[in-house]
Specification:
Elements lengths: L20 E7 L6 H14 L4 E5 L16 H5 L7 E5 L4 H11 L4 E8 L7 H11 L3 E6 L14 H4 L4 E4 L2 H11 L5 E4 L15 E6 L5 H12 L9 E6 L6 H8 L6 E4 L5 H9 L3 E5 L6 H9 L3 E5 L13 E5 L3 H13 L9 H11 L9 E2 L1 H4 L1
Parallel strand pairs: 1-2, 1-4, 2-3, 4-5, 5-6, 6-7, 8-9, 8-11, 9-10, 11-12, 12-13
Antiparallel strand pairs: 7-14
Length: 384
């Protein structure tokens, strides 16, 4: 039987046992799914601070079917094969997986971190926490906070989270729900912005795609329009495409007018202020940006708004996208690539993705001095 947390000093909450170093992180591994990409970013950020062992846990490969056609931008740019990170894959057998956790969490491990996502199979997490406790490590569960009410809440995992020393979620309200469910003898609960994917509510029910193309880029426009025209006619009333593109070439408006779904396409050729750009991006369900540069205003606003963004480029990787888990890659000269990436970005329209700097802040919170990283802390007493 696992014991609940017995820690009583909030200031020492993240301090590992004396003389221990290193962190073991477990969670989904696939660079094709948002949970897997997030675990990669958490691991990368921790690897800049300490020795990390990452245990890849994939329970259901069906969730990844077809996603290879819309690759993650952050995963493609993750070329930091740090010597501080060692990777292992957990067995699929429940018995063998439990043994692997015990073998990989050594007696010198300071902290173990499980990343869980409500609504998918997280049955492995209890085994992982148990192995961490056996090794005497500090046990932490980082739980994604997802948009409501269409997604499962962190409270649905209370039975598993209850066995950790510390539970991190992304939303203050969900933190309070967990605190009330755990009672006075449960783990400490804290919220951190890196774990929140909520916040894009209030948009139109129509799927609005906004694409930013370079001036007179007829080639990219042709591919984009063909990708949009591939949407079935029975569905098109639910979609609208805005093309933001300055142009002198008379072919540009003719291409828009001759597209199959022209009634659902709008060409915006005027210059816009920063406020106009902010409003346009915030109202969109997904973005497409062709060959953005490091100083791209459109890309900067996309990250600020946390919106799913398809970067249309060529075989070379773009200058932007490091650690932004809401980015996708598409080949601007291949219609199927652009179509699949945009449709996948639209599936993620409810999510507001964390800013890249959040991963470093989370890593510092997990292994650093809590007093150096002031964030929301809700104790049992505060909740009552």
């Amino acid at each position: 039987m696992l014991r609940k947390s017995t820690m009583v000093n909030e200031a020492d909450m993240f301090n590992p046992p004396a003389g221990r170093t290193g962190v073991v992180v477990a969670g989904p591994s696939s660079s094709l799914t948002v949970p897997g990409i997030i675990v990669s970013e958490i691991t990368r950020a921790l690897g800049e601070l300490t020795q990390v062992t990452r245990i890849e846990v994939d329970q259901n490969s069906d969730l990844m079917v077809g996603l290879h056609r819309a690759p993650s931008l952050a995963a493609a740019l993750d070329d930091t094969k740090s010597g501080n990170v060692v990777r292992h894959r957990a067995p699929t057998s429940q018995r063998l997986r439990a043994q692997a956790f015990r073998d990989l969490i050594g007696p010198g491990t300071a902290t173990v971190v499980a990343y869980v996502w409500p609504g998918i199979d997280n049955s492995w997490a209890r085994q992982f926490i148990h192995a961490g406790r056996l090794a005497g490590a500090l046990t932490v569960v980082a739980c994604a906070s997802l948009p409501q009410p269409s997604h499962a809440r962190a409270i649905s995992l209370a039975g598993t989270l209850n066995f950790a020393d510390v539970v991190l979620v992304g939303d203050d309200t969900q933190a309070k729900e967990l605190i009330q469910a755990f009672g006075r003898s449960g783990p400490y609960v804290e919220s951190h912005a890196a774990l929140s994917l909520d916040g894009r509510g209030g948009r139109s029910s129509k799927q609005l795609v906004t694409a930013f193309l370079p001036k007179d880029d007829v080639a990219s426009l042709t591919t984009l329009l063909a990708a949009f025209d591939a949407i079935p006619e029975a569905w098109i009333d639910e979609y609208h495409l805005q093309v933001v593109m300055r142009f002198d070439d008379a072919l540009v408006p003719r291409l828009v007018e001759s597209s199959y779904h022209t009634d659902h396409v709008e060409l915006i050729g005027d210059s816009m202020t920063s406020l106009d750009l902010q409003d346009l991006v915030a109202a969109s369900s997904a973005l497409g940006i062709a060959t953005p540069t490091i100083d791209s205003r459109a890309y900067s606003v996309a990250v600020e708004c946390g919106i799913g963004t398809v970067v249309l480029g060529n075989s070379a990787l773009p200058d932007v996208g490091h650690s932004y888990v809401g980015g996708l890659l598409a080949n601007h000269s291949r219609t199927p690539s652009v179509h699949v990436a945009l449709i996948h970005a639209l599936r993620l329209a409810e999510l507001q993705f964390p800013a890249p700097q959040r991963w470093k802040e989370l890593a510092q919170r997990l292994v650093g001095n809590p007093s150096e990283s002031p964030i929301y802390l809700q104790s049992i007493v505060g909740a009552t």
